[in-house]
Amino acid sequence: MSSESPLPNLPGSGISLPDTPLISGALDHLKKHTSPTVVNHCIRSAYFAILLSQKIPHKSTEPLDVELIVFATIMHDLGWATDKSLLSKDKRFEVDGANMARNYIEEAKIAVGWDKHRTQLMWDAIALHTSPSFALHKEPEVMLAHIGITADFLGPNLPGDLITIKENKEIVDAFPRLGFKSELLEIMCGLCAFKPETTYDNFVGDFGVEYGLDGKGTGKEEFAKQRLAFSMPRFVYPAIGASEQDED
């Protein structure tokens, strides 16, 4: 990796990221609040998103907002901040990350041209990055942020043969995984322990059910019971009947 830029051009894949004060500031902010492993994951996601923007057609007549895509992917996992005092107890990690990125935009003197619409689009890209059933049907920037982040998990196995082994290797060599698989397990299980009710209706809870609250199986049976109790069939659906009785 080049010593001249923290986000170097990758000639083999033909990828370059915008070198703007906002992107540099976002990268510094990410490094301040997350681990080196998470930093590299977010940077790889940005490279994948831009690579895929060159391969996936989109219907918008407007040019892609590349700075927004890169900013969103770099900041998308602020909800994994190492300082838990920065995180909410009642919101999903994706929403924490989106809120933190929005606060950064609103406070940054270098956020030029970020009107309400652009800021909302960035918020959506982060908040929906784990929800393909929403993200894939929104604006191209939101869609590409989601696919770029997903690509860092799947690499050449991303459906559609969109990423070659060579392209994947160049990005991962530039920003190594640094034990991402084991750290991801620790983070997901930690969220199940730290704010369980934010994990019951999404994939994070799957980690608690499978691996417990510490990644080693501790508390997984009780967590599974609690998660089931909050499910639609167990919690919401019966409430309709109770409401109907009250209305009679």
Task: Give the integer mean of the pLDDT values.
Answer: 93
> How far do the termini sit from each other?
70 Å
Q: What percentage of amino acids are in beta strands? A: under 5%
Would you list the SSEs in sequence order as H and E? HHHHHHHHHHHH
CATH second-level architecture of the largest domain: Orthogonal Bundle
Domains (count)? 2
Query: How many E strands?
Result: 0
Question: What is the fold named in CATH at topology level of the largest domain?
Answer: Hypothetical protein af1432
Using the CA coordinates, give the radius of gyration: 19 Å
Fraction of residues in helices? 55-70%
Helical element count?
Answer: 12
Q: What gross morphology would you assign?
A: globular
Which regions are unreliable across 5 or more consecutive residues at pLDDT < 50? none
Structural class: mainly alpha
Main sheet overview: none
CATH class of the largest domain: Mainly Alpha
Domain HD: 38-133
Organism: Hyaloscypha variabilis (strain UAMH 11265 / GT02V1 / F)
GO molecular function, one term: hydrolase activity
Protein name: Metal dependent phosphohydrolase
